[in-house]
Design a protein that fits this description.
single chain; 129 residues
């Protein structure tokens, strides 16, 4: 599977997942505030693999803190690596970029060639003024 096909398949899968979780207390309900617009694999300078893309804050009043988690699988479907990123204070009605590096259970960074597929495991947003 080439990188373009992988990216398209991953993006299609991502769009089927819930947009985000909601916060509690003074953070307000952010259940529909964040849209994951894109997610693509890129080799990084250390020989590992990053997932990069853009998110959009549809909230017209509040800044949002966004937490993203991705999981990578090999050709046999074994999930072997996770990538996390936290974007703080994404302004209302704006787009932000993220970059999350995959790490396996040993703390190593697998190269993109080892990743057959990846998906969004979790997306949380906590919005408030």
């Amino acid at each position: 599977m080439n990188t373009t096909t992988l990216a398209c398949a991953a993006l299609a899968a991502l769009l089927l997942l819930p947009a985000c979780d909601h916060g509690s207390g003074d953070h307000g309900n952010a259940a529909d505030s964040i849209i994951l617009e894109s997610a693509n694999l890129f080799s990084n300078a250390r020989g590992g693999c990053d997932v990069r893309g853009t998110i959009f804050n549809t909230n017209d009043q509040d800044f949002c803190d966004v937490l993203l988690e991705f999981r990578a699988s090999d050709r046999q479907g074994f999930q072997f690596a996770d990538a996390f990123d936290n974007e703080d204070q994404l302004p209302p009605n704006s787009r932000g970029s993220y970059s999350a590096t995959f790490f396996d259970e040993n703390g190593d960074q697998p190269p993109c060639d080892f990743i057959d597929s990846f998906d969004l495991a979790d997306l949380q947003a906590f919005c408030g003024s």
